[in-house]
Amino acid sequence: MNFYNEMMDANDGVRAHYQGYDQWLKATPAERIARKRAEADLAFHRVGITFAVYGEEAGKERLIPFDIIPRIIPSAEWLALQAGLRQRVTALNMFLHDIYHDQEILKAGKIPAEQILNNAQYRPIMQGVDVPGGVYAHIAGVDIVRAGAGEFYVLEDNLRVPSGVSYMLEDRKMMMRLFPELFAKHKVAPVQHYPDMLLEKLRAVAPQGVSNPTVVVMTPGAYNSAYFEHTFLAQQMGVELVEGRDLFVKDEVVYMQTTQGPQRVDVIYRRIDDDFMDPKVFRAESTLGVPGILKAYQAGNVTLANAIGTGVADDKSIYPYVPDMIRFYLGEEPKLNNVPTYMCRKPDDLKYVLDHLPELVVKEVHGAGGYGMLVGPASTKEQIEHFRQLLIAKPEGYIAQPTLALSNCPTFVEEGIAPRHLDLRPFVLSSGKCVNMVPGGLTRVALTKGSLVVNSSQGGGTKDTWVLED
Amino acid sequence: MLSRTADHLFWMSRYIERAENLARLLDVTWQMSLVPQSLDAANQNWNAIIALNSLEAAYAKKYSEITAENVLRFMVSDADNFASIHSCLRMARENAHAVRGTITTEMWETLNSTWLEAREKSFEQLLNAGISEFFEWVKMRSSLSRGTTLGTLLQDKAYHFIRLGTLLERADNTARILDVKYHVLRPHGDEGATDFYQWGALLRSVSAFEVYRKVYRDAITPERVAELLILRDDMPRSLHFCMNGVVKNLDLIANSHSGETQRQAGLLHAKLHYARVEDILEQGLHEWLTDFMDHIYMLGDGISKDFLAPMAEAA
Which of A136, A210, A288, A458 is placed for a possible disulfide with A370 were both Cys, Cβ 3.0 to 4.6 Å? Predict the structure, then answer.
């Protein structure tokens, strides 16, 4: 397979936007690079920028490997991406509002109604609930890959609790600390204002009539894999980091327990899944949430970001319909490509998938984090046969896509510098009509040779992402 | 501030202070054991450390006899012993982890790297390198932690809860060290060189040897040692000094239902402020210190109820 290389063109020449970096790399002694890489490792460890891995020894923390070769995006490419992201997230928010109100898109027959109404992520409790500004997905982490001759594809829309933005910010901080001279030479668009932008968005969606809202970040606790990020964002925004046990509801109003007594809370940036938010409504055994918070939410006394029920729009079984949503709500052609997707619940699609398993990527409809997926070309016969049985047993539980020739980028690995596959997760912030993002996003890189799975839980690393200003 | 945040800050500072004081206590016991003494006396010293922390049962499960090495291993490196230095450093770090957005980066890095380093040290390595060196290291890490707090943290309520935890813990720990050592030293009453070294070691354990010299410019006597560690309000590890700080910091975080706790703290403080060492010794130092430690415990309980534990939904 031929892969698009972010740095080198087909004739092994350095692409224009990488020329400056390439010259610097060639002129910098190897031992200085090695020293800087060790310094980065040490600093990340000391600062505790780690993540917990599920299934490993309880409380064990690992470092996400950081690569010092940046992923560089030229200005024109970014502007096109940004326009596409804005369009897509706008349509997704309109879709969510529609689904929880008049369901025009179902009436128009654009999406089979049972696909929505029988979806576990559809929350009937949200039907008819008005949320401030009509915004559901305040924070979206849209995964983008590059394939073929370099065209961009949206791989998934993460509209529930997308994570990773702290790595984007820490990677930049680290690069500036290690190699300030690079930033003197390049006009790299800044990203450090993300927390301010986020706080502004959260304040903008406060319940009606609240002029100086109290915003908090809500975490499942210190053992969550993204706990570092929760504390980081709360600290950067200067707001409290709360757990469910810090909050209580009285007369449909949410309060937090403080050393001076109860204090009212208006906006909750929650990093907990719907299922765990309110034991009175969702999972009764959950101790992470707050009993009665859904009532307060429905009464409009508190804003949750993201809203309850956004999962119905980023579910892998709904993903194939996003281009139609854009056409339906905005009357525009989609600016970003979807990856062609086979819906295994359709008999024809299933037949094709079963016949072509060794070439396809099969994903669980409700899976996330790189768990429960099959990458055909990289799998053994046994693994493929295992998935064949799963597919036959429960076809509606899976989708399949062609294996994309993900672009790659030179990366430091044990044997030196070698190309590794990567993706990009921009963080798109919405409030009302306003959709913003900082330039770039988080670049994740699969450090294992040939691997197409970039998730940190599967051994992925990160790179600083540079959008170059003209 | 969130009650839970205050709780983590309070315990973060208590645990690092506890690790430091435990290092001090073990160090002084170790130093004292180097001065010629009977085997009985030596074992009594080590036994006292276990008894002091009410760890007899847990200790007996692991070791059949009291020896210096066993007690050190148990109190320094044993991860199963919740009162060991190892456990205290871990708990200090865990509490800091839970509030790392509230404390400064420097504070977090200090406690995190202290734990990471402590975790790497096996007991055998510590013994080989000289156990006193490890105790020095713990004291320095605690000082560093206090220093970054003083040097980088905004002096708001977070700071007051941290100071409160530090001072309450230190008051308790100084009282304990004094109680157990005074007890061991006093009954023998054998005047002379041994005694001088033993009292000197006790003073050093609370960094008060030079202070003593400066304040009294005279021979070391048990009465003056007690006076220095209990009543001097300018000696940073004395009970009086600690209670000054407790009262001051409690005032700064007061809320509508903390009146009784403040009153209790004031009473305890007054007791130190107006006490004379002759009266304390006449009452019996052990009885007096036991009573003091009970009050410290009650104060901790009051602080927990007033500020740290979620108040029943009393909106």
Answer: A458
Q: Write the pLDDT tens digit of every residue in A35-47.
A: 999 998 888 877 6
CB contact (8 A) between residue B3 and residue A235? no
Q: Do B4 and A48 touch (CB under 8 A)?
A: no
Q: B87-101: string of b/e by CB count within 10 Å (b at 16+)? A: bbbbbbbbbbbbbbb
Supply the CATH classification number for the domain A342-402.
Answer: 3.30.1490.270
Q: Is residue B313 part of a domain?
A: no
Q: Does B94 touch chain A (CB under 8 A)?
A: yes
List chain B residues with CB under 8 Å of A301: none
Taking each helix axis as running N to C, give the angle between helix B193-205 and helix B209-216, from 0 to 180 degrees, rounded to the nearest 10: 110
Any idea what DSSP says for residue A244? G
ipTM over 0.85: no
Nearest CB to A257 within list B2, B97, B109: B2
Model confidence, pTM: 0.83
* Predicted local confidence at residue B315, as pLDDT: 37
Residue A336 is encoded by which pair of tokens? 């970003």
Six-digit token string for B248: 């001051």
Query: Does the beta-carbon distance from A259 to B308 stay under 8 Å?
Result: yes
Per the CB < 8 Å rule, is B2 touching A256? yes
Print the domain residue range for B31.
Answer: 3-308
Q: How many domains does chain B have?
A: 1
Residues 151-180 of B with CB under 8 A from A: 157, 161
**Cα distance between residue B5 and residue A246, in whole Å:** 9
CB within 8 Å: A222 and B98:
yes
- What is the number of alpha carbons within 13 Å of residue B161 lying toward its C-beta? 26
Residue with tokens 């928010």: A93
pLDDT tens-digit map of B52-101: 888 999 999 999 999 999 999 999 999 999 999 999 999 999 999 988 88
Q: Which residue in chain B has the smallest CA separation from A255?
A: B315
Residues pairing with A417 in the sheet: A412
Q: What is the pLDDT of residues B104-152, one digit of tens each?
A: 989 999 999 999 999 998 999 999 999 999 999 999 999 999 999 999 9
**A235/B102 CB distance under 8 A:** yes
Q: For residue A275, what pLDDT is reported?
A: 93
Is the predicted pLDDT of residue A56 greater than 50, yes or no? no
Does residue B81 lie in a domain region?
A: yes
